[in-house]
Amino acid sequence: MAAPFRGVSSPERGGGRPRGKSFLLTRKGDKETGRSPQDQTPSKKVGIVTADRILTWTPTAVVFDCDGTLMDTERHWQEARRRVLREYGVTPGTEFSERAKGIHYTDCGRLLAETAGRPELTGKMTDELLESFRSLVAEDPVTAPGAVEMVALAHEFAPLAVASNCPRDVVETCLDTAGLLLYFDHVVVPGEGMPPKPAPDLYLSAAEACGADPAECLAVEDSLCGIRSAVRAGMRVVGVGPRPDEESAALVDLWVPSLGEPRLVAWAESRPAIPEGAPGSTSSRVVPPRGSSPGDAATPAARPGETAPGGGSPGTAP
Question: Does residue 165 sit in the same domain as residue 177?
Fold first, then answer.
């Protein structure tokens, strides 16, 4: 297993920024600010930005979100939140669902407790949320439309990583069950010194783990929380799912209804493969055999805040 990976810490590694400095990452470059990355709001893109930023470009690495992007699990989170709140006599509305989408489960636990008027039960409600979600995923682990094909195509031309706000065991179990985990070189989740989205750290860490400059990476996201994280990291972004309001949609370079969208699939199919034997080529990574069954291979689990390199023993199950 690779040495513990703690995130970007120096300008010499993977496009990192100096410690002690805060940068607002915009499409024109780095703008130093007096705020922490967690407090920064992505700038409106400057100039005319079109789908050509994606469809005429080959990224050095591709970083996928998991929930709602690769796995059709956002509905499980919604149901888990409803179940928890019902126990306290509360019916969540649309505004609650929008606030909860994509945020870290501990933040969601706090939001649940706040909504129920029981802040003293934050820890208990967080545990109930995770327990309910794990149960729902075990019953119905479904990949998002087009996810399997897109991951297989992207694996041919770039190293792949997952950056997720979920616990590692949940991410790895979902992806392994779907037969996707073996495609990924790294899995990055929040942990000690690694704040969750919308901070940029997960995406910056994923880029460094893949040996890529964040500006040359593609992020694939379905939530505004995750999109903000990727934009703050300086990545180009493909948004997936129902199109949001124009202000939110303007943050991404291309919005598609699913990963099976014909333009996106045609783009992925036309990308040049990494030369055989070159760093990051499929010959130097785990190459899933065609027609392999779900769960045939998995990346090893790692401690919170570390990445899990491709290959090795199966990840931890919940």
Answer: yes
pTM equals 0.72
What six digits make up the tokens of 72? 């059709």
Sequence-distant (6+) residues with CB within 8 A of 39 are: none
Does some domain include residue 181?
A: yes
Q: Judge if 222 and 251 occupy the same domain.
A: yes
Question: Would you tell me how many other CB atoms lie within 10 Å of the CB of residue 88?
Answer: 15
Cα 180 from Cα 297, distance rounded (Å): 9
> CA separation (Å) from 164 to 65, 73, 87, 150, 185?
5, 12, 28, 18, 14
- What 8-state DSSP symbol labels residue 317? P
Same domain? 245 vs 274: yes
From start to end of 181-308, where are the E strands?
A: 186-188, 217-221, 236-240, 254-256
**Beta bridge partner(s), residue 191:** 194
Q: Model confidence over 132-183: pLDDT tens digits?
A: 999 998 888 889 999 999 999 999 999 999 999 999 999 998 999 899 999 9
Phi, psi at 211, each rounded to 5°: 70, 30
Domain count within the chain: 2
Find the length of the chain. Answer: 318
Q: 164 and 111, same structural domain?
A: no
pLDDT tens per residue, range 296-307 = 333 333 333 344
Is 309 among the domain residues? no
Contact 220, 63 (CB under 8 A): yes
| DSSP assignment letter at 61 | E
Distance CA 217, CA 239 (A): 14
- List the domain range (segments joined by +) for residue 100: 74-139
